[in-house]
């Protein structure tokens, strides 16, 4: 944290905060609430959650918003329930039923066989009620106006999709997927293949990249915490981007990096990109190797 020069009562927070998102709020709603609670100007999230979906929503605050580009393709983990018996226009429980409800006659093994068709790299059509854009307009805005929504299938990857049990036509599952995968579309397609329709009844995200549910804090916890307590809720910078090696800069190297100048990091000569710290907590840059041991700061965070 640093003191803002504009407002003596405002503290600028540079960090990553994991929010335990409640149902009923959009991801942007959560960002706006956190910014108001913490009195922050800069903030964003690392991957949209549908309003009905809950749990892990990573937020980047202050200068850490510059790290968002590194999380565009982050893997995500979910748990939830797929309800068989009827489809909806939104592919989840928020939407209007499509067609007549049916009494599904599915066994656990049949549902598991259905799920097996979605493992690996598959072509998937995004839901018509989604943030995907058609000529610059979000698809959900067109769908709400009863306009035709045609979204091209895209390749996604489902790395794990396990049906844990079947209860009153509700299939409980866990999944691990690549970025861009819609579990709503998976539920809808499973219902179509089963011939009885289905929708995503509930969805909880349990992990995004290196961020897990145990790192998350509720909006109520944030609202009731003092600034010092909130700082302790931020993810420790050393845990960020674990695939990148890190180095602790000397005063001389830190000074050069702050001015955007290249530096020599001989101990990391084989790395393509590195995290540069000043001390234990201050992540000051992500630097890219130019040649040999010479690294140029790609992103300066101070």
> CA-to-CA gap between the ends?
11 Å
How much helicity do the residues have? 10-25%
Q: Give me the number of helical elements.
A: 7
The counted number of beta strands is: 20
What's the CATH architecture name of the largest domain? 2-Layer Sandwich
Topology, element by element:
Blueprint: E1 2-3, E2 11-12, E3 15-21, H1 27-38, E4 43-45, E5 54-61, E6 76-84, E7 87-88, E8 97-98, H2 108-116, E9 120-124, E10 133-134, E11 137-138, H3 139-144, E12 154-167, E13 170-177, H4 183-194, E14 198-208, E15 211-212, H5 219-224, H6 227-233, E16 246-248, H7 251-258, E17 263-264, E18 273-278, E19 282-291, E20 294-300
Parallel strand pairs: 5-14, 16-18
Antiparallel strand pairs: 1-2, 3-5, 4-5, 6-13, 6-14, 7-8, 9-12, 10-11, 12-13, 14-15, 17-20, 18-19, 19-20
Features:
3 domains, alpha+beta, Archaeosine Trna-guanine Transglycosylase, Chain: A, domain 4, 302 residues, 9-stranded mixed beta sheet, disordered N terminus, 7 helices, 5-stranded mixed beta sheet, Pseudouridine synthase
Give an overview in words.
Strands 3, 4, 5, 6, 9, 12, 13, 14 and 15 form a nine-stranded mixed β-sheet that branches. Strands 16-18-19-20-17 form a five-stranded mixed β-sheet, with helices on one face. The chain is an alpha+beta fold. 20% of the residues lie in helices and 35% in strands. Strand 19 and strand 20 (294-300) form a beta hairpin. It folds into three domains: 2-72 and 210-235, Pseudouridine synthase (2-Layer Sandwich), CATH 3.30.2350.10; 76-205, Pseudouridine synthase; 239-300, Archaeosine Trna-guanine Transglycosylase, Chain: A, domain 4 (Roll), CATH 2.30.130.
